Amino acid sequence: MPTPPPDTIAILEQSPRRGHSLPVQFVDLLIIELSNWRWGWRSMVIIGMVFPLLSMMLLGSFARDLGNDALAYILTGNIVLALLFEHQGKLTSHFSFMRMAGALDYFATLPVQKMVLILAAWAAFFILFIPVLLTTLVGGMLILHVELHLHPLALIVVPLCALPLAGVGALIGTSFRTPEEANAVDRLLTVLMLALGPVLVQPERLPSWLVTLGYLSPATYAASALRQVFLGPVTNRLILDL
């Protein structure tokens, strides 16, 4: 058997498997994630649009006499609800399926970082979330008659609100043995996040202990940040929320 040239041996020993830069990894994984939904993205977007609209119609019918503040909480709370379903819930299902199918083991053999894979999945689902966000905002104006005061910081705040929820979803999806267990925990956590703290309901209408527990929920901070950038005014509280 012929011996490889010394130069070839040196190259193989120095860099047996050298990965791409982080931006290249992110773009490649984002394309892979988006291609997973090239056939089913329409149904995902439509379902994501309908649920917040129905929730606003139902809650708005009860809160219409409670003032504009109550309606504002319903609007931003339903945006948080959409974020929980479209990011935490979808990433829970996505990563639990990849774990069961062996896709995570496959990605582990590639020269890519785990955090970049999570960021790519978050970005893919955020792109699919944009129509849901726009529909919820327009629906809030038409159904709840809430006046929007959009701030340019919304372009930064909304993705940052989605990022920790995506991380929670990825953690749940990879921590349980079956997708059924992961989805059950995700649904329970979604209900708790919406119930704890002033997400859908004003803090003065909640028990003090429930408001206090809300500080442990990322949904509380997301709702506060979204109220500031969509309804105004933006205060120093935004720094704490982010």
How are helices and strands ordered from N to C? Answer: HHHHHHHHHHH
Tell me which oligomeric state these chains represent. Answer: single chain
Total beta strands: 0
Helix content: over 70%
Strand content: under 5%
Which spans of ≥5 residues are poorly predicted at pLDDT below 50? Answer: 4-17
Q: Can you describe this structure?
A:
This protein is mainly alpha-helical and 242 residues long. It has one domain. The protein is built from eleven helices and no strands. Helix 4 crosses helix 10 (218-230). The longest helix is centred in the middle third of the chain and has 34 residues, at 68-101.
At a glance:
With 242 residues, the chain is mostly helical. The chain has helices at residues 6-14, 22-36, 41-63, 68-101, 103-108, 114-144, 154-175, 179-195, 208-214, 218-230, 237-241.
Which helices and strands appear, and what pairs or packs with what?
Elements: H1 6-14, H2 22-36, H3 41-63, H4 68-101, H5 103-108, H6 114-144, H7 154-175, H8 179-195, H9 208-214, H10 218-230, H11 237-241
Q: Which keywords apply here?
A:
242 residues
